[in-house]
């Protein structure tokens, strides 16, 4: 006897399970099965497809004629951090740009100050609010970065909070050490990078990936290469915040270093985008950040996909450059500003997002996969990127158990 059957699914979105990220034209392929059911046993999918009488289950979850998909995968967040930076909005209004605010000791360094001051429990409680909201929005796999400590005690504090979140919630997480995220006041980039490289050994106990912010006024390509090589020698797979604002050639460095992902890429070069197609590096695009920074130029998703590259999407949730934990909103911005198709978007927040954080068993619903499912209050899969700024998640099922159900009004 199976544990649970999810019935009355109007249409079931089934991204293709693949041992590599979907690239190019593959990204626009998306299997959708009408009048579907999902059968689950011991938290794993037994069957997901057309309605059949072949299976029985002791419990039924009614999808009420709504659509369903795998739970979403969020491959890039800075969810563990202290404080907030709403005061910077007035600087933005006055036209002070992101890197200028950082240069003046604000931005990331402001969050560093607030994170260092915050106790472990305070950071855990604060991030728990965001993880809860992400779950309510249909996300059950989350990547979480350090990078607001910039010293051993506080970088490890952030990573330990990240690990505690995974213990606390029925989700899967990936943890990323981002020691080289900014340069503390009074320090020189090269010598500070040496200190962050030395921290790799300590971070290895908690982190799956090593990430670096390669940007003007932060770390150069050469400094980043040194860090990525050291991290790989210590067994990390690497990530990079690349070509977010200035075209430094971060994407080329990512591909050279066989990075699992290169993130941002708004200013990626034609050469880098060409190389992407022949690499296994996933381009994680963060259009919410471009929107939030008030930029007009968005990452060239069309060029990357039509060039044969693998693209994923994420919120980049952080207190300064993209303050949203709503991945559905990013799906809408991807449709409107990255010109991605609905099928590409769905693959970018499921199977490709999973590959961007080495979580290939997430983001799909084939037999044996974790039974992480979202029932959406939407007529079809195109509706979610179309109707933006709201939460379309109706029921969220984690490992076959109902974890969240949208509450009705009480009146
Ligand atoms: O500003 C922040 O706190 C997060 C960020 N790191 C690199 N780009 C944005
Ligand atoms: Zn980021």
Automatic annotation (TrEMBL):
Record bears the keyword Heme: no
Main subcellular localisation: cytoplasm
Catalytic activity: 4-imidazolone-5-propanoate + H2O = N-formimidoyl-L-glutamate
InterPro entries: Amidohydro_3, HutI, Metal-dep_hydrolase_composite, Metal_Hydrolase
Record-listed Fe(3+) binding positions: 76, 78, 241, 316
Class of this enzyme: hydrolase
TM spans (from-to): none
Any one Gene Ontology cellular component term annotated for this protein: cytoplasm
Note describing how the cofactor binds: Binds 1 zinc or iron ion per subunit.
Pathway listed: Amino-acid degradation; L-histidine degradation into L-glutamate; N-formimidoyl-L-glutamate from L-histidine: step 3/3
Keyword field contains ATP-binding: no
Residues binding 4-imidazolone-5-propanoate, per UniProt: 85, 148, 181, 244, 321
Cofactor(s) demanded: Zn(2+); Fe(3+)
GO biological process: L-histidine catabolic process to glutamate and formamide; L-histidine catabolic process to glutamate and formate
Keywords: Cytoplasm, Histidine metabolism, Hydrolase, Iron, Metal-binding, Zinc
Family label: Belongs to the metallo-dependent hydrolases superfamily. HutI family.
Protein name listed in UniProt: Imidazolonepropionase
Species in which this protein is naturally found: Lacicoccus qingdaonensis
